[in-house]
Write a structure and sequence with these properties.
Layout lengths: L6 H5 L3 E2 L4 H17 L6 E6 L5 H4 L5 H9 L12 H7 L3 E6 L9 E7 L4 E10 L2 E7 L2 E5 L4 E7 L3 H10 L4 E5 L5 E6 L5 H8 L4 E7 L18 H7 L7 H13 L3 H23 L13 H9 L7 H18 L4 E2 L9 H12 L4 H21 L4 H4 L5 H15 L4 H13 L17 H20 L8 H14 L16 H11 L10
Length: 525
């Protein structure tokens, strides 16, 4: 897993369908790697989850199964067939079973997957680290670290020296490792696939049994000796001395250096992302439907009340709430959204940025710059804390989104770099300790309310910062505190469906109704 997060890998993305990026997008990426490991030939799958982890109780209802099945079939995270992926998996002749058993790896989002096809058997252990990001940590008993940001070639062999010598003389690579065990293999990390003629030469070597080509699953590649201009707020401020750059400009500097792409490409990628976000808002406000759902389509009613001047508060607040709701409803109806920074918190940041922009007549360019500013704050969080609710509670998801949004709003309103940082610090301070306790084991409620809270918190903190309120605690120290607080939140309050609102009588009644086939749910007093 890269030490240096990417805005487009780790923070603003992936583009996806499904209720949870930690579950849906991450599991799909893990399964894509499994598919490549088996040369796209899978017959039987055994998936194991730890009883004390998050996935044992949420794998079906929060979309891990759906994502896995889509990934085993080679789909993208935004494929329109995802909601029916189990049927497509069965039609393809692939059998699966799920077991709950104690695992050696204790990360709450651990996947242990055994794969067979009649000719070979492989086992892979991977973790979802938040926001759709993953790390494969073990293949066939060998410790590895595969994040999906390289072309990975695995050469299974009984002797490595001569093969490595051949590789070093014939291919361009970033890293070569030999993993020695019962199923030894050489791992090559590279920017491009190893040429077919080279692979054919290697296959002829007497000590080689298999060659596996694993494709990247992330949009921004890693590379050898990767460097970034800064990786904390303090380092950013030092870097900016004498440059006087705005937060969005610093974000462009960071991402272009991190990803080895041009500043123009950074701007263009963010432009593509905000267009998807805008489409999600427009789609949600037209009304959405989905059978496996708690809340239904509420944003169109909010729109009616807003346009009839029936609501308390100003245009920015109300348009923000309306947009946040619309995006969350698209997510809950299997529409296409951008995890920002996660699917469970996909409404807060874009809802408030677009809501504010539409009220103060900001153009697309201003939205791009605001979202880049938010992305850089997210880089600091990803590097030093987490976006995974299974690790840090809802503080890690909606809390992070609110901190990112606060900085974005200051940027949109012409505030200074220092004011943007202050706004982020204030918003994150206000979010410490928020638990993750989804009702009915679905990522809808209280998730919607917490996205709205994050967005309105962002507005308040942006205004406080623009008025030069003291934030007192430096942003870096607040992020360090987020990590420490997340570690102290009890596991039953970190997206396990085992505590908080999740275990109320009303929530369990809703959950039972949703588990009926077809799902049946009604609102009760």
């Amino acid at each position: 897993m890269s030490t240096y997060p990417s805005i487009f890998n780790d923070v603003i993305g992936p583009v996806m369908r499904g209720p949870s990026s930690s579950h849906c997008a991450a599991s799909l990426r893990i399964a894509r790697i499994c598919r490549d490991l088996m040369d796209e030939q899978i017959k039987d799958i055994l998936i194991t989850f730890d009883p004390k982890g998050s996935l044992a109780t949420t794998h079906k209802s929060q979309g891990s199964d759906m994502g896995l099945f889509g990934g085993f079939l080679g789909w993208e995270a935004y494929d329109e067939r995802l909601q029916d992926s189990e049927k497509h998996l069965a039609a393809s002749g692939i059998n699966y079973s799920i077991k709950i058993d104690h695992l050696a790896e204790k990360h709450p989002n651990t996947y242990q997957i055994s794969l067979t096809n009649g000719k070979e058997t492989r086992e892979l252990v991977a973790i979802s680290t938040g926001g759709g990001m993953i790390e494969v940590i073990n293949i066939d008993g060998n410790k590895v670290s595969i994040a999906g940001d390289y072309f990975e070639t695995l050469i299974y062999c009984t002797e490595a020296t001569s093969i490595i010598n051949y590789l070093e003389a014939t291919v361009v690579f970033d890293e070569i490792n030999f993993h020695h065990g019962d199923h030894s293999f050489i791992e090559i990390k590279s920017q491009n696939r190893i040429p077919e003629n080279i692979c054919n030469e290697i296959k002829q070597m007497p000590t080689v049994t298999f060659i596996k080509a694993i494709n990247p699953v992330l949009p921004i590649m890693a590379r050898k000796n990767i460097k970034v201009p800064f990786i904390s707020c303090h380092e950013m401020m030092e870097y900016n001395k004498g440059k006087n750059k705005a937060l969005w400009e610093l974000a462009v500097d960071y991402e272009s250096i991190r990803g080895n792409i041009s500043p123009a490409s950074v701007m263009e990628k963010m432009k593509e992302i905000i267009q998807i976000m805008r489409n999600a808002i427009d789609t949600g406000l037209k009304g959405t439907k989905y059978k496996d759902r708690i809340l239904g389509s509420q944003s169109p009613h909010y729109k009616e009340s807003f346009e009839a001047n029936q609501l308390i508060g100003g245009d920015v607040i109300n348009k923000t709430i309306m947009y946040v709701s619309a995006i969350m409803e698209v997510k809950s109806s299997m529409g296409v959204i951008v995890a920002a920074p996660t699917a469970g918190s996909c409404g807060g940041l874009p809802g408030v940025v677009f809501g504010t922009a539409d009220c103060i007549n900001n153009n697309e360019d201003a939205i791009i710059k605001a979202m880049l500013s938010a992305g850089l704050i997210g880089v600091f969080i990803a590097a030093h804390a987490t976006f995974a609710a299974e690790v840090g509670g809802c503080m890690a998801e909606t809390g992070s989104g609110g901190g990112m949004a606060a900085a974005a709003l200051v940027e949109m309103n012409g505030g200074s770099l220092e004011q943007s940082i202050a706004a982020a610090s204030l918003a994150l301070q206000n979010s410490l300790g928020i638990i993750c306790d989804p009702i009915g084991n679905r990522v809808e409620a209280p998730c919607l309310g917490r996205n709205v809270m994050a967005a309105t918190n962002a507005i308040s903190c942006a205004n406080m910062a623009l008025s030069n309120y003291e934030h007192l605690i430096p942003l870096d120290e607040v992020i360090e505190t987020m990590k420490a607080v997340g570690d102290q939140i009890h596991h039953t309050l970190r997206c396990t469906n085992l505590g908080g609102l999740s275990i109320t009588n009303a929530a369990k009644k809703i959950e039972a109704l949703l588990e009926e086939n077809p799902p049946v749910f009604y609102k009760s007093c």
